[in-house]
Amino acid sequence: IDAAGRTLLSTDPDPGTLQRYWAFRQHWDAYLLLDKQVRGFMNDGLPLQATELLGGGMRQPYDAARQALVELARSNVAQADRSRREAAMLAGLAQGATLLSVIIGAAVAALLAWPIIRRIGTTLAAARQAAQLLAQGDLALRADGVAKQGDRQDELADLMLALREMAQRWHGLVTQVRDGALGVAHASREIAQGSG
Question: What are 13-38's pLDDT values in tens digits?
Answer without folding.
Answer: 666 766 767 777 777 777 777 778 77
